[in-house]
Design goal:
Helices cover 37% and strands 18% of the residues. It has 233 residues and is α/β, with parallel strands linked by helices. A four-stranded antiparallel beta sheet has the order 4-5-7-6, covered by helices on one side. Strand 2 and strand 3 form a beta hairpin. Helix 1 runs parallel beside helix 8, helix 4 runs antiparallel to helix 5 and helix 6 crosses helix 7.
């Protein structure tokens, strides 16, 4: 998959937008020719070459709209550590601008109790909100910013927001990716693609069943770009 993303990024501005911290995503992906957006887009950094050649606004490539929340996020993280200590299988992940509480390994009968514990931490802090993903609870600043906003920011930073020859493509499998699908749907052009092996309600227009199909799609996209052969048979 890494080689496929690297190849696609040679021809198209490419970004990895994740709920995990930007540093963790970069360490995992290990590519220098893509944009990294961590914490659901609250921490964005461009590749060094893109800062020099692609940024139309003179930005240095770094964008962190929730930076002022960092001290409070650390306080919440410490409080959560104490609260969930006795819940076997629960795990806290510090994603810098977002705190994730994973409960995939928690016994089913303890799920609701854990959710109430985490909810009690957020209820006393109106500047934060609690959202749910796939077997994970996420606490992040209550600012109007999500993966869709991150996508818009990247398009704007690259000077592509109003380009008539640009079709944004977004591939995702999480409910938080719906915000990005919604942005593309609102543009009425582009390719919002959900990854799911079962039918589900979504704003995406297209679907791939699993990571193996994502890999095949990206390889075909790169091959099409290099050879100018028809992408669709």
């Amino acid at each position: 998959m890494r080689a496929a993303v690297r190849e696609v990024a040679k021809y198209f501005p490419t970004s990895i937008i994740s709920g995990r911290s930007r540093d963790k995503v970069k360490e995992f992906v290990k590519l220098n020719n893509v944009y990294y957006a961590g914490s659901h887009g609250l921490d964005i950094m461009a590749p060094s070459r893109a800062v020099k050649s692609c940024d139309k606004k003179g930005n240095d490539g770094a964008f962190q709209p929730a930076k002022l929340f960092l001290p409070a996020i650390q306080e919440i993280s410490l409080e959560l550590e104490d609260i969930i200590r006795e819940t076997q299988g629960a795990r806290i992940e510090d994603n810098r601008f977002c705190i994730s509480v994973h409960y995939r390994q928690v016994r089913l009968e303890e799920h609701e109790n854990l959710k109430e514990k985490v909810k009690s931490v957020v209820e006393t802090r109106p500047e934060f909100r609690l959202t749910e993903g796939k077997m994970v609870l996420e606490i992040r600043p209550s600012i109007e910013w999500n993966k869709g906003d991150a996508l818009n920011y990247l398009l704007d930073t690259l000077g592509l927001s109003n380009a008539k020859d640009v079709l944004p493509l977004f591939i995702g499998d999480d409910r938080t990716d719906e915000d990005a699908f919604k942005v593309i749907a609102g543009r009425r052009e582009g390719f919002p693609i959900i990854v799911s092996s079962i039918p589900r309600e979504t704003m995406a227009w297209y679907s791939l069943r699993d990571p193996s199909e994502v890999l095949a799609f990206l390889l075909r996209l790169a091959k099409w770009t290099k050879s100018n052969i028809p992408f669709f048979k």
